[in-house]
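Next comes this protein.

***
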Amino acid sequence: MVKRYGLLGLHWFIILNFLVEIIYASYIIFSVLKPDEISGPLMEQAKFIDLDLMTRRRLYAIECWLAISGLAIYLAITEIAPRLKNRPAQ
């Protein structure tokens, strides 16, 4: 019983860790590293942004996408695959 709760706690810790990383990276990209004169999507204004700022934004975007991919893979392995495996054949 204790082992089950420990594994369940670890499971939710991993999920929350991914979610916190996604929220953190999104906050950095869209609030902290936002160009002063631009609001909303960059679109054409991306040509006029400092290279250092654009590089930092892209690195955080990569970090965010890695967290999103990691969460999707983790949920596919731990939640979706076991449910599909236990589903009756049709």
The chain has one domain: 2-86. Residues 2-86 form one domain. The helical segments are 2-32, 51-86.
